[in-house]
Design a protein that fits this description.
This protein is an all-beta fold. The chain contains no helices and eleven strands.
Length: 120
């Protein structure tokens, strides 16, 4: 059973930085895209950043230039470096991994969520 374990959330002042980590374990299937989503109360979950196994990245416009997603394929770990944080970045951040079976079937797994709170 695949498990994603997140770490690194917390409380920070506006303009500060945090780094989230997410390690996947227990998978016999390949991990293709890994990414970070966030959700704040009353809002839909949105994709923040994603990275393919080849290193191609994608960001939501609101975090471009401030957040950086990276991954260590050998460790099945994805990171999100968040700089110049703003109060509107406050949310629960969820790690996502898309896995691919030997037969080409894809499925998603999610982390437990890490709270990021940015004070003004």
């Amino acid at each position: 059973q695949v498990q994603l374990v997140e770490s690194g959330g917390g409380l920070v002042q506006a303009g500060g930085s945090l780094r989230l980590s997410c390690a996947a374990s227990g998978s016999r299937d390949s991990i293709s895209t890994m990414g970070w989503y966030r959700q704040s109360p009353g809002k839909q979950r949105e994709l923040v950043a994603s990275i393919t196994s080849g290193g191609s990245t994608n960001y939501v416009d609101s975090v471009k230039g401030r957040f950086t997603v990276s991954r260590d394929n050998a460790k099945n770990t994805v990171y999100l470096q968040m700089n110049s944080l703003k109060p509107e970045d406050t949310a629960a951040y969820y790690c996502n991994a898309r896995l691919v079976t030997a037969f080409g079937y894809t499925y998603d797994r999610w982390g437990q969520g890490a709270q990021v709170t940015v004070s003004s």
